[in-house]
Amino acid sequence: MKEKVFEFLLNVPKGKVVTYGQIAEYTGNKKAARAVGNILHRNPDENKYPCYKAVDSKGNLSRNFAFGGIEMQKEKLESEGIEVRNYKVDLNTYKWNETK
DNA sequence: TAGATGACTCACA
DNA sequence: ATGTGAGCCATCT
After folding, report:
1. φ, ψ for residue A98, nearest 5 deg
2. 3-state class (DSSP) for residue A63
3. Is residue A99 in some structural domain?
4. Distance between CA atoms of residues A12 and A97, nearest Å
5. Active-site annotation holds for A41
6. What is the CATH number of the domain that holds A16?
7. How many domains does chain A have?
8. What is the pLDDT of residues A48-72, one digit of tens each?
9. What is the pLDDT of residue A100?
10. What domain range is A16 assigned to?
11. Which nucleotides on chain B have any atom < 7 A from a protein Cβ?
């Protein structure tokens, strides 16, 4: 299951973000978003998996980011070319559709 | 091994 | 808008 999360994460193109629910849905359990968040929180390979691309349903950045705080996540997202407004991203624009 | 917690999300009052 | 309850999975204690 975690492997699916990581795979999904690696599949996320640069400049795009995904929601926990979306990842959970991909892994097979839409309601397992909690587990997804937990997996990313205890992210085994921070430098390998773009965990900062994971945002909540509202496009809000992670509530308790693991490294340096959400500010760092914001910076990273901006580095990807994503416009971050007050620790929030426009899902309508940046949320990635795997089928797309 | 079992119980509790958490980067979540949705629904209802 | 704010608060509570339910549902899943991985990790912690």
Report:
1. -55, -30
2. coil
3. no
4. 9
5. no
6. 1.10.10.10
7. 1
8. 899 999 999 999 999 888 888 899 9
9. 61
10. 2-94
11. 5-10
